[in-house]
Design brief:
By secondary structure, this protein is mostly helical. Helix content is 56%, strand content 9%. It has three helices and two strands, in the order αββαα. A two-stranded antiparallel sheet has the order 1-2. The chain is elongated and about 65 Å long. The model has no long low-confidence stretch (mean pLDDT 81).
Length: 87
């Protein structure tokens, strides 16, 4: 019976340590540096929505932001600084 409690305690400790990693996700960790404004931007779901609005306004098909060359990314960040959030 003591082994079961020891195993459950170890399992609960492991679950408690892993919970913050599962909760944050990878998307919150992606950051891009804006050369023109000299600041960093976090890429998350909200930024992806804004990016899609930007593409729609330019009548361009969706491409993942990370696949764009630096000049295209900088164009987006310039637009982003000039346009408030759409939410």
């Amino acid at each position: 019976m003591c082994r079961i409690y020891r195993f459950m305690g170890l399992f609960l400790l492991a679950a408690a340590c892993a919970a913050p990693l599962v909760n944050t996700g990878c998307a919150a960790r992606v950051r891009y540096y804006d050369d023109y404004h000299h600041d960093y931007h976090r890429w998350n779901n909200h930024e992806d929505v804004e990016y899609r609005i930007y593409l729609n306004g330019r009548h361009e098909d969706y491409r993942e932001f990370r696949t764009l060359d630096r000049d295209r990314q900088n164009d987006y960040w310039k637009w982003r600084h000039d346009h408030p959030d759409h939410h």
